[in-house]
Amino acid sequence: MEYNEKVYEFSEIPRLTPAQEKSPFASFYYSPVEKPVPEVMRCIGEQQLPVGSALNFSDIERVFRPEGDSLENGWCILPDGTGYSYVVTEMPEVTPAIEQWWNQWIMDPDYDYLNYRIWMPGLHISHGMPLVENMGWGVSQIQMLQPLFPPQLNLSAPPQILDDRFLGAIGTSGCSNILDRPEEKEYTILISCIKRFGQGVKVQTIGYMGVKWENGHLVKMHDADPGKLRLFITHNAYEFRRKALLAPKLYQMATALPNCGLNPNVKPPVKL
Question: How many helices (H) and strands (E) does the chain have?
Fold first, then answer.
């Protein structure tokens, strides 16, 4: 398997099309992508977390409680051969209102999915179904197989035990394949827990590689590739750091435009 960590230098991103260049948001696409904070950068290197620091999927409810703050950034191969990753990103300027707006804005198909491309230039290609992204092991189609919230995961903790900063969670079980090697399938589960952080939010991102959620059960599909797992957490770390810095600026511009920058009826073709 060939890996390309250099894609996270964002030095050779594709130019926008003439139609995309007309977008009022086009300049954001070319704005530099900053690295995650040093603490996170140290944890996405080659050194694995101790297996005992990983959050077992059966204990996933812990992240929604106050003790979720004790989880460690990093990644590791679990005893059964599957993979685990965790990274937390603080977004002090992304208010809950901006968070809600962002989830609509990135799905807007205006300007040939430019909105989603701005988030990770050269790596986010299409927010259609399936998604098209480059994680560092090739341009891949990512099919979301099943949402995990609700009702697959039972948030059974009484309300007084749940973290009072808890705002919500997004979880999906997915499968990806490289466009030029469709027989190579990669199964992942990705869960984002969103909590208040001062006036903004923070996102706790938990990933599992080599598994899928099927008929109410976690099913192992394959062993996790350590190289892919490192790139998986790297992608998540860069993705949410970029959002932390970019979303407030985009929100300020979009809310001044007609329809808040959302044009849900415009659906031009997606060009890969």
Answer: 6, 10
